Hints:
- By secondary structure, the protein is α/β, with parallel strands linked by helices.
- The protein is about 30% helix and about 20% strand.
- It has helices spanning about 1-5, 15-25, 50-60, 85-100, 160-165, 190-195, 210-215, 220-230, 230-240, 250-255; strands at about 40-45, 75-80, 110, 115-120, 125-130, 140-145, 175-180, 205-210, 275-280, 290.
- The chain has an 8-stranded mixed sheet, with helices on both faces. A two-stranded antiparallel sheet has the order 9-10.
- Helix 5 links the parallel strand 6 and strand 7 (about 175-180).
- Helix 3 (about 50-60) packs across helix 4 (about 85-100) and helix 8 (about 220-230) runs antiparallel to helix 9 (about 230-240).
- The radius of gyration is 22 Å and the shape is globular.
- The termini are far apart.
- The mean pLDDT is about 85.
Amino acid sequence: xxxxxxxxxxxxxxxxxxxxxxxxxxxxxxxxxxxxxxxxxxxxxxxxxxxxxxxxxxxxxxxxxxxxxxxxxxxxxxxxxxxxxxxxxxxxxxxxxxxxxxxxxxxxxxxxxxxxxxxxxxxxxxxxxxxxxxxxxxxxxxxxxxxxxxxxxxxxxxxxxxxxxxxxxxxxxxxxxxxxxxxxxxxxxxxxxxxxxxxxxxxxxxxxxxxxxxxxxxxxxxxxxxxxxxxxxxxxxxxxxxxxxxxxxxxxxxxxxxxxxxxxxxxxxxxxxxxxxxxxxxxxxxxxxxx
Length: 291
């Protein structure tokens, strides 16, 4: 509830402000009263990511504001992109459809397929796998990347490739939202980069929500056992913490320290000095490196 209220710029009670501070480590509401256009949410496993995604997708799809940006007869899309097509379908078929069927506005649905939910107002909630061509060409008023931290499993820089392909599809809609919701992986990739920017980007809501903060029904003793079995995995899955050890040779802080010069140092006669070069193809964020 607090996440949704902050996303849409609604005022918080004192109790809700405590939860907000816990989720964001921010002592005041960042850009209070302003509806956010971006979200970067690191949420623990079984923390209700699919429910949040479904509620936001259905709400945005039932807003009349998007019609003014569409040509006559053109359909607007709320797109959910996930690591696998089946995962994306489950959000639409199992979550969105169920919420609509149990609501007072169930009559707004005209077509209910496994991959899409078409409403009478000409809007569609649709699911796609994480590839750059699946939703290309669609007018998208809401773009949700589900488990984007794990898109890289589908191929090198898949997260950036899919984001670059679909983000321009939102250009015609003023106020279109883009949400990245995932359990964390390593301190690398698009999800980590945007999360690490924290509250420095206007119009973006950044949160970190451990599993039991958002879903206290998950037994603590289960999480404790997982912490004993595999601490690194449990911290990612249940504490929503980014890891050093997933596809990372060096810790993130060590990498960043190397980019800061401590001033000129004279050579020590007792030391041998070596120079290393890593030639780059200059693709994406890859750079030519000299050490």
